[in-house]
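Rotation project, supervised by the postdoc (A.L.). Task for the rotation student: set up a whole-complex structure prediction and record inputs and outputs verbatim in this book. Inputs entered:
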Amino acid sequence: MSLFSWFELIASGLITGGIYALVALGLNLQYGLMRILNIAHGEFLMLGAYLTWMAHTTLGLSPLLMVPVSFLALTALGLVIHTLCFRRLTVTSPNLDIFEARGLMVAFGLMFLVQNFASFMWGGDLRGYDYLAEPVKIGEAQFAGNKLLVFGLALLFSGVLIVLLRFTLLGKGVRALMQSPTGAQLVGIDTQRLHPLMFGIGLGLSGVAGCLLSMAYTITPSMGEPYTVTALIVITLGGFGSMSGALAGGLLLGVVEALGMHFSNPSLKALLSYSVFIAVLLLRPRGLFAK
Amino acid sequence: MKDRQILVRDLLLLLAFAGWAMALPHYGSEFVVSMALTCLMYVALSSSWGLFCGSTRYLSLATSAFFGIGAYTSAVALDSLPWLGAIALGAGIATVVAVVMGAAVLHLRGTYFAVLTFGMTELIRHAVTYFEKKVTGTVGRVLTVVPDRDTIYLTVLALALLAVLVSIIVRRSRFGLALMGIGADEQRAQTLGVNTRLIKVAGFAMTAAFAGAVGAAMSVRWTYIDPHTVFNPFIGFQTVLIALIGGAATLWGPLIAAIVFSVLAETLRLQAPQVYMMSLGLLLILSVLYLPGGLASLRWATFSGWWRDGRGWLRGLGSKERKNG
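Outputs recorded:
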């Protein structure tokens, strides 16, 4: 194999990996921070994608403009969901274990609800639109323009989130909340306000991911589940709650998949990613990069 | 009620249920019988799920894996084995898989366990799909030798009864107490001399045996199976859902919920599938939030509790408005 085809292979793996990292951002915030394993994550991503598709095809708005719009819309939705479901759950659950189990079940309910709402509203057909579909040349390799754009924005959002969490006061509060909710409350962090906000932002980020994905891929009401699984794999690889870990884990998974698919065959892709997932959960449940 | 009286009551209830279900094919229409069959399938699945997962609070999402394994086994073996032999083989293989899987993952608790069992289910599904595509060269299998409807019905009924009966027996045995001890506080159970690892694997295998047998019996209903239908994660989700909504730790909860669900499913699904699924989701959320013990824990006190909560909430709203105004 020539050096060039290696480059092309790894670059396409990295691009897919960047998208994986983007998909995982919201879930990472929700699970790492609040122990809410939002299995409906992919469904909210799908909502973001449909919002963008609708705005683009009926109103002619640019998908890029829809990035902040779907962020805000889904953040608002997240605040509502948190108030309706998870606040009561936090109050009534006797301990964190039970809270996690119940939260998971509520998320399952949300998954059924949102997915079928979408197929009720928009039907089960494949949808999509063309946006920046012409290939871009880098050296001799060719990449789809929209995928490059999505990749770039994915890196940007991950970077912004990492910086935000590491260097601002808000980020410090959030990280404190991750380590110990009671401790955070004791040092005067307003957990009652931070909790719903973070849940909302988690959903908002999945909306952003959906919006960006709709530029490059076709969308259906049932598109969510594979993305949820991918997001789960990525955050397990990176260690729950670690943003830089998730970014590295996503890129790694993309490259592993690309290489694996090249050297075996494409129908093994799902098998490969599930094997990686299970192996990591069993052998390094704290993530690949944990000390 | 004394312990013995409860046992007698449970056995009598089970007997009455069995008699009613046995008589159903003789007077019910084709539609009613097929509905009853689905209902019995979920009674068997969720009762056996509750047997392990309800008492130990290990949330397993692997039911569809065992169900699919059973279904595939009977699809492959039915040509050469008698009907009951195929079902036993399905249950056996599911048990073996469960023992291996359980030994690997049962040291993890909570969400890790749930996610892992889900991941393993998907892994098995993709592995079977890949195997069928590459080695057998087909996607699905057509079942040619199929027993008649009454045989299937009676088999599934027997499995459902067996599942409830085993639950009754296990609850009164040392094994059942050990399972409940693990659910209450695993470390304490260990300290008190329970071999938790062995008990957990045994319980998990028991659940899997039932799911495998039910899968083996139900696969002939479809006459054509492919990995996508029999390993459908939805079968696992719905089992968990039924058990949780009914009350996973109770004996009769899963049975009640299975009946409610099958009626709801058959009446709503054909006219408005999305509405059915949406109401399923909504029911799940509501039951987790407001009825964490399940339908079987519903008492008059529950309603008065809601009434109090609701009034308190309204009063809270009122006082807020006064403050603002």
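Student's summary: Residues 300-325 of chain B form one domain.
Supervisor addendum: The CA atoms of residues 189 and 207 of chain B lie 21 Å apart.
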